[in-house]
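Hi support team,

I've been running sequence recovery on a batch of backbones for a student project. Most finish fine, but this one hangs at about 90% for roughly twenty minutes before it completes. I'm not sure whether the input is malformed or the queue is just slow. I've pasted the structure tokens below so you can try to reproduce it. Let me know if you need the job ID as well.

Thanks,
M.K.
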């Protein structure tokens, strides 16, 4: 399958499953105030400075998720020269990875990026598995690596 379109409904669903959705402010594993679908609270967010446990509305969670997805898409387009030519499934995998890792950390996946730019999906999956990220979020990473392997079939 080499369709270049990106199924955003699936991307949203997959990230919501992987990140979870929390309708209150909580501390992420790195002790940063967070809410919604893994939204790290920034200084310009209205939730900045509010107490852990403060409720956050469904509308605000969706708004923050939409903004975060937009930012991730911008980051992916910057990281991958041939973004528009990549298969839709590869884009979906990369958006999920970038949402989880951030642009800077995903940008350090030099061998994965090189394999993707060479359209070597099997090698990209091997390189995804050969990472600290894979050991940290193994179930999520394995799902994504398996999907990457299947792109060329």
């Amino acid at each position: 399958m080499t369709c270049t379109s990106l199924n955003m409904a699936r991307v949203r669903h997959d990230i919501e499953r992987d990140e979870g959705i929390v309708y209150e402010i909580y501390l992420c594993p790195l002790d940063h105030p967070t809410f919604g679908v893994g939204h790290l609270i920034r200084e310009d967010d209205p939730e900045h400075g509010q107490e852990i446990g403060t409720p956050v509305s469904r509308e605000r969670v969706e708004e923050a998720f939409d903004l975060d997805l937009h930012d991730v898409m911008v980051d992916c387009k910057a990281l991958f020269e041939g973004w528009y030519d990549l298969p839709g499934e590869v884009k979906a995998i990369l958006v999920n990875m970038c949402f989880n890792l951030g642009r800077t950390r995903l940008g350090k996946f030099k061998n994965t990026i090189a394999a993707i730019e060479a359209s070597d999906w099997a090698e990209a999956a091997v390189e995804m598995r050969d990472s600290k990220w894979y050991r940290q979020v193994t179930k999520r990473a394995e799902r994504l690596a398996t999907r990457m392997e299947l792109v060329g079939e």
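--
Follow-up from support: It reproduced on our side and the slowdown came from queue contention, not your input. The longest helix spans residues 58-79. No action needed from you.
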